[in-house]
């Protein structure tokens, strides 16, 4: 059976963080129930697309999925099981934010079938958490983490952020050390991105030190944070398997690996994206409109009406994506997989580019794989542009 992944979007949170541009926001219980009813209808309507496929991973993202009760999470996963063929060892991840839900109910979340938690910490410094607009403290995070372990969860990711306003290299190192001593199974470590339209984006658009707000770390400090992330996590036995992700042996995130390898996926809920049979689309981003369409129309009609930005992916675009996504992984791009997928050797498409990048010490070829060198990772965005093809090259 063909592999398929599912992403399920929960667009609710207690309040928006100052840096967040995700499709999420506060909502009362009646609005949540209406949304979940529509969401389950969408999941159940997709059974035909899942025929002949086995779901290897389910990712409940947001927003804040842990704002829902275990019963609500269970209802979503019940719809998944009744609609799709779920692999016996399927990875089922739920994002969990400290300060939401009741940590005492952690075991109930796991009983629904969730077997991997991704906990959004960002920083172990309470001052930095306040600056970010997070609703939890370090102590509350620890309670959440301890309850998850006590409930038997043996696959936990912790999200961390660097280059936070007011953050120093020392405070970031302390966060890394505190996290590593907890021995999570996986760590995702990202640098803050100033997104347009967010409070952070507005405050820091023109200056790294706007009046009334703590300054952003300078470029050299941010660079040192990046280097210390690798050094400290490696020292505690974490393998870097993707530019921003580290894991203990056997604990790499299978859902994300599928994304980087272009495994087909279906997204459910407002704003969720899908890649299926070399077609890509996103769902509408208006939550009320999404709910109304599932209330007012038959499932076949509603499933069509919620989709927008539908596009067929050309061979050229698929080849480009294979490199944009695959080179994010330390294992790189498989030459044999490329040839099996596209019916031609990598050399036929990117021979000239690879020769130049190898000569510059930015990529390396070994064991049938093409991957970024340490120097290539440092300027990965620049390296990726070499794999953009001219329109006339498309077959």
**Whole-number average pLDDT?**
94
What order do the strands of the largest sheet run in, or round the barrel if closed? 7-8-6-5-4-3-2-1-9
Strand content: 15-25%
Q: Which range best describes the helical content: under 10%, 10-25%, 25-40%, 40-55%, 55-70% or over 70%?
A: 40-55%
Number of strands: 15
Task: Provide the low-confidence segments as ranges.
Answer: none
Distance between the amino and carboxyl termini: 29 Å
**Secondary-structure content class:** alpha/beta
**Major sheet details:** 9 strands, mixed
Rough shape?
globular
| Number of discrete helical segments | 16
**How many whole angstroms does the radius of gyration measure?**
22 Å
Short description:
This protein is an alpha/beta fold. It contains 16 helices and 15 strands.
Question: What can you see in these coordinates?
Answer:
The chain has 395 residues and is α/β, with parallel strands linked by helices. 41% of the residues lie in helices and 22% in strands. The chain is globular. The chain starts with a strand and ends in an 11-residue tail after the last helix. The mean pLDDT is 94.
Keywords:
single chain; 395 residues; alpha/beta; nine-stranded mixed β-sheet; 15 strands; globular
Write the layout of secondary structure elements.
Layout: E1 2-10, H1 29-45, E2 53-62, H2 70-83, E3 86-96, H3 106-111, E4 116-122, H4 126-132, H5 138-150, E5 156-162, H6 169-182, E6 186-191, H7 199-204, H8 219-235, E7 239-242, E8 245-247, H9 254-260, E9 265-268, E10 273-276, E11 279-283, H10 287-296, H11 299-305, E12 307-312, H12 315-326, E13 333-334, H13 335-342, H14 346-359, E14 363-366, E15 369-372, H15 374-378, H16 380-384
Parallel strand pairs: 1-2, 1-9, 2-3, 3-4, 4-5, 5-6
Antiparallel strand pairs: 6-8, 7-8, 10-11, 11-12, 13-15, 14-15
Helix pairs in contact: 1-2, 1-10, 6-8
